[in-house]
Amino acid sequence: MVTIGELASYAGVTVRAVRHYHAKGLLPEPERDNSGYRRYDAGAVIELIKIRTLAEAGVPLARVRELLRAGQEEFAAAVADIDRQLQAEIRERQRHRERIARLASGDSLVLPPEVVEYLDRMRALGVDERIVQAERDGWIPLAAHSPERVPEWMARKRKQLDDPRLVDFYLILGQALDRADDDPRLIELADKLAAYLTRMADERGEDYVDDIDIELPLVKLMDTLAFATVPPARRLIELLKQRGWTGWTKLERVTSTPGATS
HTH merR-type domain: from which residue to which, for each copy (predicted)? Predict the structure, then answer.
């Protein structure tokens, strides 16, 4: 007969664990002897080692009692079932680890990987960070609203970034961000951007320019986010409208308004 401390030592667990197994009804709790101590026999040592082995293997305590009493076939079936559950948990934890790893880049917190890759490519091409941030802010609600369409949109965006003229569009746009609304060079920039957009639309179709068909309320939200990030862009959009184009998130061809040189 051994004490609880000796029992725990022989089985390789703590006294606290033994008491926990008592509380869970997994290990019978013997009566106290005349000295007030609980004494355990060799059977308790063996039973405790079995409990410890099952617990260390990942078997939930709620199922340990079932396995201790199971026959060979029942035991094998139960273990197979637990193994499937553990594999599912491992896959889920791996997905959690992948998400945690992506959070390190910042953008990955709220954006799918393909959008993050697109933004990184814009940075690599030398696009002004404020424009990248405006794109990022726009893609956050867009990806949340229509996640199933992100791969389709990103495939077109990646293809468009292969066009040097579109890269020039972003680089020229970056020049506008540090100019005052009354800077005459802003008018020249609007001329270049309007000519570029018109050329793209004539050569590849207006769908190539306006490639994201989304609801008007979402367009307005994304425009608001963009203008908050790059305030000078609002004036540039006004100038573009005079030259036959309107919109930021959703570019559309319109009839040129009078005063297209101012």
Answer: 1-70
